[in-house]
Specification:
Number of helices: 17
Structural class: alpha/beta
Pfam family, one: Glyco_trans_1_4
Number of domains: 2
Oligomer: single chain
Distance between the termini: 5 Å
CATH class of the largest domain: Alpha Beta
Order of helices and strands: EHEHHEHHHEHEHHEHEEHEHEHEHEEHHH
Strand content: 5-15%
Strand order of the largest sheet: 3-2-1-4-5-6-7
Organism: Xylanibacter caecicola
Protein name: Glycosyltransferase family 4 protein
Helix content: 40-55%
């Protein structure tokens, strides 16, 4: 059993959910992380915000609130300063990309391991600290939250579609990220005692690595961040939604192509795009039949899910798509691919092949023309979502640590 666990993570992934859960259950030893609202830079950001200066970067830092006792929070601005120095300095871009994954590893090592018996780490971040922790006798658990081939797939998708021309400048950065990840993967898989993996899709993608050991897998799908009080699905005729911040990865182009066809069949079609999307993309002719709404708050997003006849999400590769579970919890019928990470044998979505516009069109028409089937699917997906609540995720996470 792991009694005292060090969580090591860069940024506020899952809004610090894992250290919060472990602290709640008396299992958190320490949280090792970079800049938070309580580090020097974070406190400066809070002070600037208090006098009315609220840039997006400042507000992001203010929201980095781990929510654990101060004596267990080990936070450093080392990565923050090193990244800014790297922007000024000319030099090897690959080395700069390594910095993102190793930017405060020496600080982690200097903090030591205390009385911990386990370290929980986000993917390849701060790998040398994992080597150090292992040498001290700690068990190592790694969160492999998406396929290691993500950046390679992104490059291929951008190069294959001229509609994504505005993203070509990111190809070099994606290439470096892929190289860094692959550099560590085999050693990481061998070093780790266990991997937490959110979906069968990720497990399937790991089989190309010789050191992947399926016996080390702890299957841990994420819980929904939206849990409505009751079922309240009230669809608006011919309304569809897509939600996300990465149009390439999450297949927005195929939604746009489907919208061009569906608009001819249903002139009142309202295909709404929720989230952060590049302004140039919004103006591109290929995306003209999509309605870009922007970023919404939690309550507004719930209303979008509840009012859409379908959530169309032709994603190309995920770990486990949280938006799919959000949509399900609001009773919104879902059209997606196996890459969303849901269990195709159990999760009641309409599954389509990747990159297949015709399948999107046919699936949408199926729901538009058969409201009874749409409503049945709505209830089925809502009922399934009750198996993926934050409470169930928390229980499963704690049980795993008690067993290892």
């Amino acid at each position: 059993m792991a009694n005292k666990i060090i969580v090591c993570q860069t940024g506020s992934r899952h809004r610090y959910l894992i250290p919060r859960v472990l602290e709640k259950n008396g299992m958190l030893g320490r949280l090792y992380t970079d800049t938070t609202a309580k580090s020097f830079i974070g406190r400066c950001a809070r002070m600037i915000s208090s006098i009315g200066i609220g840039s997006p970067s400042v507000m992001r830092l203010c929201r980095r609130q781990p929510g654990i006792p101060n004596d267990k929070l080990y936070t450093t601005d080392m990565l923050f300063w090193r990244k800014r120095a790297a922007r000024i300095r000319r030099g090897d871009s690959l080395c700069k990309r390594y910095l993102h994954y190793t930017g405060f590893v020496n600080k982690c090592i200097s903090w030591g391991t205390g009385d911990a018996d386990c370290v929980y780490n986000m993917y390849i971040e701060n790998y040398d600290f994992l080597v150090y922790a292992k040498s001290k006798g700690l068990k190592v658990v790694v969160d492999i939250y998406e396929t290691p081939m993500t950046y390679k797939y992104l490059i291929e998708e951008i190069e294959s579609n001229p509609e994504y021309g505005i993203f070509r400048k990111q190809i070099e950065s994606y290439g470096y990220s892929h190289e860094v990840r692959i550099h560590y993967m085999e050693d990481l898989l061998k070093l780790a005692d266990y991997y937490t993996v959110p979906s069968q899709f990720v497990i399937k993608s790991m089989n190309v690595f010789r050191n992947f050991d399926k016996n080390k897998v702890l299957f841990l799908p994420y819980g929904s961040s939206i849990v409505p009080d009751k079922y309240g699905y009230k669809p608006v005729k011919h309304r569809l939604i897509w939600v996300g911040n990465d149009p390439v990865r999450k297949g927005l182009l195929y939604c746009a192509k489907a919208a061009d066809i569906l608009k001819q069949l249903y002139p009142d079609l309202d295909f709404r795009v929720i989230g952060v999307v590049n302004d140039e993309l919004k103006k591109a002719p290929a995306f003209k039949n999509l309605n870009f709404i922007g970023v919404l708050g939690r309550e507004q997003l719930m209303e979008e899910y509840r009012s859409a006849e379908a959530y169309v999400f032709p994603t190309l590769f995920e770990g486990f798509a949280g938006t799919v579970i959000e949509a399900a919890s609001c009773g919104c019928p879902i059209i997606t691919t196996e890459c969303a990470g849901t269990d195709m044998g159990e999760f009641p979505a309409i599954y389509i092949p990747q990159k297949n516009t015709d399948s999107i069109v046919q699936s949408v028409r199926y729901l538009f023309e058969d409201s009874q089937r749409r409503d049945k699917l709505s209830m089925e997906v809502y009922e399934y979502s009750t198996k993926l609540t934050p409470e169930i995720y928390e229980k499963r996470l704690v049980e795993y640590f008690k067993e290892i």
